[in-house]
């Protein structure tokens, strides 16, 4: 994908939406584009708990807040909030913006959620030209909604889907920005058109056991990424390879309880001795007061939760090392845990490597629990956000 197209899309700090939202179409108008988009600027406030104000680009309109624009959106959607998993639930709206060849992303629109039309020859379908992001919104006890570090995702969005943000304590709204080559290509070439799209889905725990430990299998033959490849970028293609490794592990391992969750831990493809990452998340190894995680060097995704946990751990007095972590270090670790937007902090109960299983106990470890607790309280607005990571929508 051309860098300029990606950067234009991911670095602009504005987005567009309808100025006539009090007459929003109902869901039965599926795929209807809302009328007359205009641009809004996100402004960070220099407050302790930072928040963005939506500023209309049109001087006639002045400032707009979400609540005065979408008056009926503060009620909750009618779903079973107690049974949220990490499956997809379709919500009300999605945001779509396109960029023609040689042009700029513009005229973004909020549309009713629905299928999108693509040429069979679209770059994303044929050559995997696609990037994605993932971030979460939590509902605070006062009803306001917190986004966690959206600028890290270079994200532009509008919370027309706020009724899908789960009630406090029941989960979060997972926000998925997608950038894809939507223009038709046949030869291997950048697509002549790109589409930027954001959809959302309310979610609960990624692993259905919640913060119960997951069991990892160290994969020593298949590799997630190679130096010089795209492992450090959130491309859609990086995740497809996981299906074969996850399936192999499930078929071959007989050491675990039948219902245990199996997730693959990848090693570096050159020495086959250093930890890389887990199929959907980063990994941390705890020994005494020291926490080690593989250094970002092109093959590992620079997770926003990874980065946040490093800062939180340091603020809690832990020594954090970003370096090469030997697979053998798992053998005498006190605790192992994974991090990611979807999984948040997930403790590891056991690691199986070349048929040998190391167990870290049945519950969440003390350090993992401490870090999980600080991070999630911060994300949910239960403690003061000294880091200024959250963005409050009003
Ligand atoms: C995330 O953690 O947000 C991801 O994008 C990982 C994905 C496999 C759910």
TrEMBL record:
Enzyme class: transferase
Coiled coil location: none
Alphabetical keyword list: Amino-acid biosynthesis, Aminotransferase, Branched-chain amino acid biosynthesis, Pyridoxal phosphate, Transferase
InterPro entries assigned to the protein according to its UniProt record, in alphabetical order: Aminotrans_IV, Aminotrans_IV_CS, Aminotransferase-like, B_amino_transII, BCAT-like_C, BCAT-like_N, BCAT_family
Record GO biological process: amino acid biosynthetic process; branched-chain amino acid biosynthetic process
Cellular component GO terms held in the UniProt record: chloroplast
Catalysed conversion reaction: L-leucine + 2-oxoglutarate = 4-methyl-2-oxopentanoate + L-glutamate; L-isoleucine + 2-oxoglutarate = (S)-3-methyl-2-oxopentanoate + L-glutamate; L-valine + 2-oxoglutarate = 3-methyl-2-oxobutanoate + L-glutamate
Keyword Transferase: yes
Enzyme Commission number(s): 2.6.1.42
Keyword Phosphoprotein tagged: no
Cofactor(s) demanded: pyridoxal 5'-phosphate
Positions of post-translational N6-(pyridoxal phosphate)lysine modification: 234
SUPFAM superfamilies the UniProt entry points to: D-aminoacid aminotransferase-like PLP-dependent enzymes
A GO term, aspect molecular function: branched-chain-amino-acid transaminase activity
PANTHER family, alphabetized: AMINO ACID AMINOTRANSFERASE (PTHR42825), BRANCHED-CHAIN-AMINO-ACID AMINOTRANSFERASE 3, CHLOROPLASTIC-RELATED (PTHR42825:SF2)
Family of the protein in this entry: Belongs to the class-IV pyridoxal-phosphate-dependent aminotransferase family.
Name of protein: Branched-chain-amino-acid aminotransferase
Organism: Quillaja saponaria (Soap bark tree)
């Amino acid at each position: 994908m051309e860098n300029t197209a990606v950067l234009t899309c991911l670095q602009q700090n504005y987005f567009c939406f309808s100025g006539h939202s009090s007459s929003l179409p109902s869901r039965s108008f599926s795929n209807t584009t809302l009328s007359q988009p205009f641009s809004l600027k996100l402004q960070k406030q220099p407050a302790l708990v930072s928040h963005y104000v939506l500023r209309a680009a049109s001087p006639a309109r002045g400032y707009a807040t979400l609540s005065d624009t979408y008056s009926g959106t503060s009620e909750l959607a009618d779903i079973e909030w107690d049974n949220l998993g990490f499956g997809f639930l379709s919500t009300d709206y999605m945001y779509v913006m396109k960029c023609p060849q040689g042009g700029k992303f513009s005229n973004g629109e909020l549309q009713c959620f629905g299928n999108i039309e693509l040429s069979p020859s679209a770059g994303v379908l044929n050559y995997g030209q696609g990037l994605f992001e993932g971030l979460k919104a939590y509902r605070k006890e006062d009803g306001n909604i917190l986004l966690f570090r959206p600028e890290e995702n270079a994200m532009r969005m509008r919370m027309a889907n706020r009724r899908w943000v789960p009630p406090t304590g029941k989960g979060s709204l997972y926000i998925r920005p997608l950038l894809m080559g939507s223009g038709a290509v046949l030869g291997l070439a950048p697509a002549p058109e790109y589409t930027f799209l954001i959809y959302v889905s309310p979610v609960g725990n990624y692993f259905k056991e919640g913060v119960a430990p997951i069991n990892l299998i160290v994969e020593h033959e298949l590799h997630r990424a190679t130096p010089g490849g795209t492992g450090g970028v959130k491309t859609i293609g990086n995740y497809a390879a996981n299906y074969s490794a996850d399936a192999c592990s499930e078929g071959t391992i007989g050491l675990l309880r039948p219902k245990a969750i199996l997730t693959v831990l990848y090693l570096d493809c050159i020495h086959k001795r250093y930890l890389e990452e887990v199929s959907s998340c980063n990994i941390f190894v705890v020994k005494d007061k020291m926490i080690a995680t593989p250094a970002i060097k092109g093959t590992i995704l620079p997770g926003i939760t990874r980065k946040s946990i490093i800062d939180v751990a340091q603020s809690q007095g832990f020594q954090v090392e970003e370096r090469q972590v030997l697979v053998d270090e798992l053998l005498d670790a006190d605790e192992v845990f994974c991090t990611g937007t979807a999984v948040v902090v997930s403790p590891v109960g056991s690691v199986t490597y070349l048929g040998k299983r190391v167990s870290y106990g049945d519950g969440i470890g003390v350090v993992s629990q401490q870090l999980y607790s600080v991070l999630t309280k911060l994300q949910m607005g239960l403690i003061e956000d000294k880091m200024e990571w959250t963005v409050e929508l009003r």
